[in-house]
Amino acid sequence: MAEPALAIRNCAVGSALSMAKGFGRYKPEEEKAVRKVEVAGDELSYLRQRREMLRSMTPEQALQVIEFHKGLNVFQALELAKKQGKLIVPNDVHDRILTETDAKYTVWTGTMTVYEEQGTPFGKAVEYTDRKTRIRLVFPVPDEFIGVKNGLLVVEHPDFTLEADGNNRIVRAVNVSLVKDFPTEDGWHLTDPAHDIPFGRKTDSSNPDARLLWRARKKRVRLVTRGAGYGGCGGKVVDVHGSLSGAFGVALF
Predict the structure, then answer these.
(1) Which pTM value belongs to this model?
(2) CA 183 – CA 213 distance, rounded (Å)
(3) Are 188 and 202 in contact (CB under 8 A)?
(4) Which residues is 191 bridged to in the sheet?
(5) Is the pLDDT of residue 104 over 50?
(6) How high is the pLDDT of residue 232?
(7) At what angle do helices 91-100 and 43-56 cross, to 10 degrees?
């Protein structure tokens, strides 16, 4: 855990510079009406519309309409969303809320990430067993991504479900995308435009667009965790490192 601790110290060093350079970064946004989405087609289409609706809002508007549920692990969060027929708020929406408002919270996001052990190309599936619950997530890798090295697979809720098979939970996913050049270690990076996941070369923590990646050395199938509870780094940590049993809670819409 030495690397995350070092990352927090670097965050504290860069925060003053980031604040000094960050004012005026965002232009005033035109106020947009918070409108209801009419159900179009099946539930999947409806939830996808909800996701795009959230993305069209300002961070302040999004914060007003999402609902927080505390003390839930990954499996409980997914079950609650399924039971209530609601969307798990994606990472990119949380990123704007946590970095552009004064909101302070920590949650599981609706952004699922999948990566292999450092330097290992994707095979037919990636498996990860949670130490506490002993539940194993199995993510079948789409054919076009088999053999890709140093990549990250990403799929957004509601485009995935979990199919129970004993202690296994097989991830059934559509619209899986690949983030290339996924970093092999923790550090500050710019983020991909679709999901706000750190990628590419390292950058300085003073860059207001940089985010701090926390990743494991070994493989993971995991929802991204975002929040203010990461030392001096505030809402800029993108956590794809820890177990699935953390009771972070979830935000639904």
Answers:
(1) 0.85
(2) 8
(3) yes
(4) 198
(5) yes
(6) 73
(7) 20
pLDDT digits (tens, 9 = 90+) for 144-165: 999 999 999 999 999 999 999 9
Smallest CA-to-CA distance from 62 within 23, 22, 90 is with 90
Cβ-count burial 179-217 (b if 16+ within 10 Å, e if not): beebbeebbbbbbbeebbbbbeeeeebbbbebbbbbbbe
CA distance 123 to 141: 7
- Cβ–Cβ under 8 Å, residues 209 and 18: no
Segment 199-214, tens digit of pLDDT = 999 999 999 999 999 9
Residues in the chain, overall count: 253
List, in order, residues 6 or more apart from 116 with CB less than 8 Å away.
122, 123, 126, 149, 219
* pLDDT band per the 50, 70, 90 thresholds, residue 10: low
Non-local CB neighbours of 181 within 8 Å, separated by 6+ positions? 150, 151, 199, 200
The tokens describing 221, both together, are: 């199938």
Which residue do the tokens 């993971």 mark? 220
**Which tokens sit at 11?**
């965050």
Q: Give the whole-angstrom CA distance, residue 62 versus residue 163.
A: 30
The CB-based long-range contact list for 32-36 (8 Å cut-off, 24+ gap) reads: 32/56, 32/57, 32/58, 32/61, 34/61, 34/64, 34/65
Note whether 88 and 109 are within 8 A (CB): yes
